[in-house]
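Quick start: read one record
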Amino acid sequence: MEPIIIFDPYNKYVNQRNDEASDVSELERFNRSIDELFSKVHELEQGVNLVEQFYMTAENSQPDNPKSSSIMKDKVKKKYLTNIEKEQQNASQSEAAAEKRMQQLIHQFAGIFYQITQHKWAWPFMEPVDVVRLCLNDYYEVIEKPMDLGTIKNKMEGKDGTGYKNVREIYADVRLVFKNAMKYNDERDDVHVMARTLLEKFEEKWLQLLPKVAEEEKRREKVKVAAQSAIELAQEVSHANMARNLNNELSDVDMQLEKLRNIVVQKCRRTSVEEKKKLGAALTRLSPENLTRALEIVADDNPSFQATAQVVDLDMDTQSESTLWRLRVFVKDALKDMGTNAMGMGGSNNDENKDNIKINNKKSKNTAATATNNNKRRREICDAITKTSAKKARKTSVIS
């Protein structure tokens, strides 16, 4: 008994709607995957820029030339360059400790300073010289930098909004007070004698503190050099690790893109014999540089293919769908850049390419598989997926 076939138009309509929804959902998932990969590649690009800038600056002492936003840079640095931040923190801590020790020396110097200011001959030097009252019209012509003990005292106490960071700065200012007085006043003048006497007493007391100051300066320089070396080493190690990690992550992105590309090829129609012939003819119209790149695309899926041989025998029928689609996208863009219509075969022929590459199509029109999809909607979705893949691939410079 023959089976009974029941035609259910409503069920067919429902199935068709379900197929459409499934195709749209799959296309959305594909586009989201491409967008995620594009964002990932953009982040990796910032990392590559940082590594490139580091080595360019180290080798050529070139200034930083940022190629991305500071927000993206900070994000990448936080992810990859944690060791550098740690060493910088260590350097800051060492600097803070050195500042604390220097403040202790300044405190000891304050004792010497107090003894000088308490001397019976210190009073003429406690305040700025009153040039107007004393009618010293040429004072500023002789003295380039006026200084007095009262100004030094206020600066040491931070009353003028500033302060000394190094004990040698205070020492230099105290000497300047007495040197100015000795320079402006005659040797037989009382102010000159008083200044010379106080300066001698000050130098004697300074020599007692000087060994500690010299030791601290030596220690500080040693710590500074060590900290700088540690930071430079951390930078080299971090950027080397960063380069390695970026390479691994880029390889993962390549694999994901390859999977997506294969999905596109599986979902879309197969390349027809006529399209293969047009593709083969288009290859002969490429420039030598673009032809070399096209042959490299073929070699990607065919390790035994000799892309660099003098004469290349390219059998279009043995190429995978993935290779054919990649070639079509690449050739279309290449011919468009050359001012011709890809696959339309406009423009002049490249005789050199024709001599060096032989395109074979073993199957004839009659015997070739003419796998076509009568569903126009599905073919349009497949073409849209391919166009999206090609567009994203060109942006990330990975697929092609």
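The chain has twelve helices and two strands.
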